Amino acid sequence: IHTGDRPYKCAHPGCEKAFTQLSNLQSHRRQHNKDKPFKCHNCHRAYTDAASLEVHLATHTVKHAKVYTCSICSRAYTSETYLMKHMRKHNI
Fold first, then answer.
1. Are strands 38-39 and 18-19 parallel, antiparallel or unpaired?
2. What is the mean predicted confidence (pLDDT) over 35-58?
3. Which Pfam family is one of those matched by this entry (predicted)?
4. Which end is more exposed in the chain, N or C (fewer Cβ atoms within 10 Å of the end residue's Cβ)?
5. Chain centroid to CA 20
């Protein structure tokens, strides 16, 4: 039965989030204290939860190769959308 009850409340000042499961609250708390225990073994990135790391790990596959490259600084991206967002930093 889904009661809508969220007994696990975040105690961080100004945060009103509440959760149905303790594990979700624990994961959420890491966002406040910047704890990122889930680290990518391919690069320097780290994440607050395993699900976010899994999404990131997919970017290292051939399917997600960085084929969109900035003509100014040579940074590469997996999609044209990300490249266009980056280009705004160059005021283009």
1. unpaired
2. 90
3. zf-C2H2
4. N
5. 22
